[in-house]
Structures are given as C-alpha cells and as structure tokens.
Design brief:
This protein is an alpha/beta fold and 318 residues long. It has helices spanning 2-21, 38-54, 69-77, 90-99, 134-143, 158-170, 182-191, 201-209, 257-272, 274-282, 292-313; strands spanning 27-31, 58-62, 84-89, 110-119, 121-125, 148-152, 174-178, 196-200, 214-219, 245-252, 286-289. It has two domains: 2-119 and 246-313, Bordetella uptake gene, domain 1 (D-Maltodextrin-Binding Protein, domain 2), CATH 3.40.190; 121-236, Periplasmic binding protein-like II (D-Maltodextrin-Binding Protein, domain 2, 3-Layer(aba) Sandwich), CATH 3.40.190.10.
Length: 318
C-alpha cells in the first residue's frame, strides 16, 4: 500500500513538473484538410497568434484525405504531451466518424481546448451563370434535373450536409462532386468545373468581392455583416438551411489537464488580441474562446443536432 502511494505521488510530481516546463519545443497543429480551405485558414491565423502567448513556435501540418479521417486519426493517436494538437471543424470531428466506416476515432478521442471561431457559410456560384437569386437557381435545377453540379471538400462535410438539406428543402436536383478538401472545391467553382458550392464566408469573401464568385444566400439565421446585400436562407424560405461553420482546437484524449489549461489560456489570450481579432474580422469570422468545458458542451450539442440528419440522409462510406 505504502509503495503504491509513493509511486502514485512520484508520477503526479513528474506530471506536474512536465507541465510546468511546457512548452519547451515547437508545437505541431495537425489540420485534417488541404491547405487553403476554411479550416486551414483558421488554423494558420491561430498558429500565428499563439507563439506570443506560449513562447514557442507553432506550425501547421496538413494531413488531408478520406473525409478528414486521415489527419484526425493521426492526431488522436499522437503522444498526449501537448506537442501535437489538432484544429478541426464539425465535419471532421463529428460527422466523419458517423459516416466513415471504421474511422478510427470520434469526438471522445480528443480533449477539448477551446472553440476558436465561427463563420457563416454562403451559397456561391460561378459568375458566368445567369442566376441572380436562389429562386432562379432552383427553378432551373427543377426544370433541368441533374444539369447542375455542386462541389464539396468530401462526403459528410458541412457543405455536403448543407447542400443536401438545401436539395430536400427546395426540391432541386443537383449532383454532388466531392473534392479533396474545401480549397480545391472552391477553386472548382471559380474555374467552372462545377456550378456551385457552399463555403465559409471567410474563404469566399475575397473571391466574391473580386467578382470571381457570385453569392446567392448566407447559410445562417442572419445576414453576414461582410455581405449585407446577400439574403440569409431563412429570409428566402429555407429556415432549415442555416448552419454556420466553426473551428476548434483539440488535443489527444489523455493530455494532462494542466497542459490543456495552459493551451486554453494561451488561445483565449490570442483570441482577445488585436492582431487575431483583426485577422478574423477580415475573414468574416467571429472569435469565440471560452473554457474547455464550453467546447465540450458545444461538441455535445452539435452531435445531437447532426446525428439524426446524417442518419436521415443515409450517408455511409466504407
């Protein structure tokens, strides 16, 4: 008994000493999507702001593929020492484990650190198309079933689910063309390979402003301040199609609470700094932050929300 107590005390002391010394080398953030997509953009904004609070370099490593599951599995299996983290969105953290058979992880595989930011999605089309409104697009899609295609960053991503909800709500017959990430999906619309997609305002805004994309509707309960003339989906008769995007910072499940607390404090400090607030504002995103428990509660609500939708759409990938 005495030996067990001594051993436990020694382990606790070692863990505390390790946490006090943390971080003493660069920190890697795995992003399970390609460079240039919405999640990657948010992760890089965060990675640029964290060193000031942590005193160490923070770098991004993109590990895309298989509906975000490749990078997510690697992050979940990493040593829980605080030197490998993950920035993910709902699609990779929540939806992919519901859809991809033997994904190898789920939300419980991670320790929540903090909610980073939220941003509305927007329905965008190639500007060469004649449609100036959602009503015109829907009318054409109904009259010409299968003639329009929409791109996404993969099966089970938030743009995919929002597009399928839009099809159900509108009766439009539009075909899905999955790409290997949000960045390639968006560029496919710009290039005219496909006609439309649902993307975050953060990554579409400059392309919209430059006339390379046309925005038809905001996928959010309210209009986006950055695009005040673009109606929100509920305004035009589609209240069910109103789910925005969010990004969160996570660690492998068994990461010590003291390290999680340090990372949470650093993230909140970064989010309240002018540099990050300005960067997020330019991207049309709202900084969030909060406690690890706040993020855990947010993830639980999102799981409850999306599970019946995924099941109703019968989305499964081997």
């Amino acid at each position: 008994m005495y030996r067990a107590v001594v051993t436990a005390a020694a382990l606790m002391w070692a863990a505390c000493a390790f946490a006090q010394d943390y971080p003493n080398r660069p920190i890697r953030i795995i992003v399970p999507t390609p460079a240039g997509g919405p999640v990657d953009v948010m992760a890089r904004v965060l990675a640029n702001a964290l060193p000031a609070a942590l005193g160490q370099t923070v770098f991004i490593e993109n590990k895309p593929g298989a509906g975000n599951t490749i990078g997510s599995r690697q992050a979940a299996a990493a040593d829980p020492d605080g030197y490998t983290l993950m920035v993910s969105a709902a699609s990779g953290l929540i939806m992919s484990p519901m859809i991809v058979k033997n994904a190898g992880y789920d939300a419980s595989s991670f320790a929540p650190i903090a909610l980073v930011a939220e941003t509305p999605q927007v329905l965008v089309i190639n500007p060469q198309l004649p449609f100036k409104s959602v009503a015109e697009l829907v009318a054409y899609a109904k009259a010409n079933p299968g003639k329009l295609n929409y791109s996404t960053g993969g099966i089970g991503t938030l743009p995919h689910l929002n597009a399928e909800l839009f099809k159900l709500a509108s009766g439009a017959n539009i075909l899905h063309v999955p790409y290997k990430g949000g960045g390639p999906s968006l560029m496919a619309v710009v290039a005219g390979e496909v006609q439309m997609t649902f993307d975050t305002v953060s990554t579409s805004l400059q392309l919209i402003q430059n006339g390379k994309l046309r925005a038809l509707a905001i996928v959010n309960p309210k209009r986006a301040p950055e695009l005040p003339n673009v109606p929100a989906m509920p305004e035009i008769g589609f209240p069910a199609v109103s789910s925005g995007a969010w990004t969160a910072l996570l660690a492998p499940h068994d990461t010590p609470p003291t390290i999680i607390a340090k990372l949470n404090a650093a993230t909140n400090t970064a989010l309240h700094g002018e540099a990050m607030k300005n960067a997020l504002e330019k991207l049309g995103a709202q900084p969030r932050g909060g406690t690890p428990q706040d993020l855990a509660d947010h993830i639980a609500r999102e799981q409850t929300k999306w599970k019946p939708i995924v099941e109703s759409l019968n989305l499964k990938v081997d």
